[in-house]
Write a structure and sequence with these properties.
Blueprint (H helix, E strand, L loop, with lengths): L4 H11 L8 E15 L2 E8 L8 E4 L3 E8 L7 E4 L25 E7 L5 E7 L9 E7 L13 E10 L4 H11 L8 E4 L16 E4 L3 E9 L5 E6 L4 E6 L2 E8 L2 E3 L4 E8 L5 E9 L11 E7 L8 E2 L9 H10 L18 E13 L7 E7 L2 E3 L6 H7 L30 E3 L2 E4 L3 E9 L8 E5 L4 E8 L18 E2 L1 E4 L3 E9 L3 E7 L2 H6 L2 E6 L20
Parallel strand pairs: 1-4, 3-8, 9-12, 11-19, 18-20, 21-26, 23-24, 25-33
Antiparallel strand pairs: 1-2, 4-6, 5-7, 7-8, 9-10, 12-17, 13-16, 13-18, 14-15, 14-17, 18-19, 21-22, 26-31, 27-30, 27-32, 28-29, 28-31, 32-33
Length: 555
């Protein structure tokens, strides 16, 4: 991925020994349409500054970041800074109608947040409708000046953004699906830094090329910005050493394959020790159920300097599309670094013990082609989007926008991964779950088998959490907690819930505001697999939501 001269100067300044401990970083994002050709067809796509993927945001831990976003397209937009804690600054979190009204055409909004205690790889993306299919980019948070990485210092760093590509306009794809009540069409290709690689029946298949020197160590910052696909990532002939996920350091472990759900990041060390040669970089989807998926393998190339064009490309074999075992091995290998400098502060006591079942359903629909429509739900409640932001309603005490009666457990327990109820209809509401400031939460996310069980990458805004346990089948509250890892569980902001299984997470509600929780498969978010936590203010201004900015968009 190429950097503009402005980004290059900023990146060099971040590495300069004269840099101060924390600074204010200014960025200007202009949302524009850009005609772009992929798969031998051209279409206008929504971009930031005309780039696909969009510009990388560089900063250091504890820097204050100011991003002025100007909307020059016909659609409303917002931007979510995925994984940024947004301590007390929920107004800058970005999900439309949750923490802000969208930025209307011709308007601007200044996102203002501080990267408190965070370092590593994150991403930003649009957070309204399906605009994030092309409106996304990387966030690189370097350590404070003078603070070393807890792993061997790399010689160079590279950002690799994975995505999906539709020949059609993605807004048209989801709008058609909502009108018919059916599932939307899957993507036509997968991309690596915006490129598909060679494709059948198309003479132009531009590929991402990673040019490397022999005998160097590269830090690869890999981001899954896809809309709906969990992805495997491999580089032929090379192992990768994982050192961080979701901007949280891990115990290093070596693997030949990375596994990332949408919204997840993985930072890994690559040692270039093959001398010369051209090696394929490949991404392919994971889907271990009957749901349709884009099976196209996106490709790029790792090319050593001085490699002759006549040297054949070294290929690789990807895991099968239903390679569940590969995802489980990768997940089980992830452990927090849990060092003195970077401890794993896992809550050992729990104030709120929650069980959320997640899955899809079928609701009646008089205007749909077959009289029904696909929906998705948490604890059988399909989330209805409000018409003004929940955070704004909470802050000003506006009534009638939401209720705070989201159930902490299923209202009617059943065999979640066994025989399913015959009634697949869901309830609806704009409900939040209320948490006292600094309370501790254990949330068991239980996948169900309604229609078809499926792996769900779930994302919690405003917090990092610890993934203390996971398993297949139904969660057993008497037996499974005894197997929790409360010492060094991986710390994340997005976690995959295995197909017909469960994942248990713990976090401390030390961030006042309204925080979205949802499946990061965009189709499921659209269908209603989402809710929000409302964290009350604590004592005094340092434990309270900051006042809204003057330029906060209005609905």
């Amino acid at each position: 991925m190429f950097m503009s001269w402005v980004q290059m100067l900023l990146f060099v300044s971040l590495l300069s020994p004269t840099s101060v401990q924390s600074e204010i970083r200014h960025y200007s994002f202009t949302v524009v349409l850009k005609n772009t050709t992929r798969l031998c067809a051209t279409k206008p796509i929504v971009t930031v500054n005309g780039k696909f993927p969009g510009p990388t945001l560089y900063a250091r831990e504890d820097d204050n970041v100011l991003v002025n976003v100007t909307n020059l397209i016909k659609d409303n937009v917002t931007i979510h800074w995925h994984g940024v804690r947004q301590l007390r600054t929920g107004w800058s979190d970005g999900p439309a109608y949750i923490t802000q009204c969208p930025i209307q055409p011709g308007r601007s909004y200044l996102y203002n947040f501080t990267l408190t205690g965070q370092r590593g790889t994150l991403l930003w993306h649009a957070h309204i409708s399906w605009l994030r299919s092309t409106m996304h980019g990387a966030i690189v948070i370097l350590p404070k000046k003078g603070v070393p990485y807890p792993f061997p210092k790399p010689d160079k760093q590279k950002v690799i953004v994975l995505g999906e590509w539709w020949k059609s306009d993605t807004e048209a794809v989801i709008n058609e699906a909502l009108q018919t009540g059916l599932a939307p069409n899957v993507s036509d290709a997968h991309t690596i830094n915006g490129h598909t690689g060679p494709v059948p029946n198309c003479s132009y298949g531009g590929a991402y090329n990673l040019h490397v020197e022999n005998g160097k160590t590269y830090l690869l910052r890999v981001i899954n910005a896809a809309l709906n696909d969990e992805l495997f990532f491999k580089i032929a002939g090379h192992d990768l050493t994982v050192v961080e996920v979701d901007a949280a350091y891990t115990k290093p472990f070596k693997t030949d394959t990375l596994f990332l759900g949408p919204g997840q990041t993985t930072t890994a060390l690559l040692t270039t020790d093959r001398g010369i040669g051209k090696y394929v970089i490949a991404i392919s989807p994971f889907m271990d159920t009957v749901v349709s998926v884009d099976t196209f393998t996106g490709t790029g190339y790792l090319i050593y300097n001085n490699t002759l064009p006549s040297i054949p490309t070294t290929m690789t074999t990807m895991p099968p599309v239903n390679g569940t075992w590969k995802t489980l091995v990768f997940a089980e290998s992830l452990r927090s670094l849990n060092s003195k400098q970077y401890p794993a502060n896992v809550p050992l006591t729990v104030d709120h013990s929650l069980l959320f079942t997640i899955g899809v359903g079928i609701d009646p629909c008089a205007t749909c082609s077959n009289g029904s429509r696909a929906v998705a739900a948490i604890n059988n409640i399909t989330f209805d989007m409000p018409t003004i932001a929940i955070l704004e309603a909470h802050y000003y005490g506006i009534k009638g926008v939401f209720t705070d009666d989201f159930p902490g457990k299923p209202l009617m327990p059943y065999d979640y991964t066994g025989v399913q109820p015959t009634n697949l209809q869901t309830m609806h509401g704009t409900r939040v779950y209320r948490l006292a400031y600094n309370s501790t939460v254990e949330l068991v996310i239980q996948g169900n088998s309604m229609l078809a069980p499926e792996s769900h990458p779930t994302h919690l805004h405003g917090f990092n959490f610890f993934a203390v346990g996971r398993g297949l089948g139904n969660f057993n509250p008497a037996k499974d907690p005894k197997k929790y890892n409360l010492v060094d569980p991986v710390e994340r902001n997005t976690i995959s819930v295995p197909t017909a299984g469960w994942t248990a997470i713990r976090f401390r509600a030390d961030n006042p505001g309204v925080w979205f929780f949802h499946c990061h498969l965009e189709v499921h978010t659209t269908w209603g697999l989402k809710m929000a936590f409302l964290v009350e203010n604590g004592k005094g201004p340092d434990e309270s939501v900051v006042p809204p900015p003057r330029d906060l968009p209005q609905c």
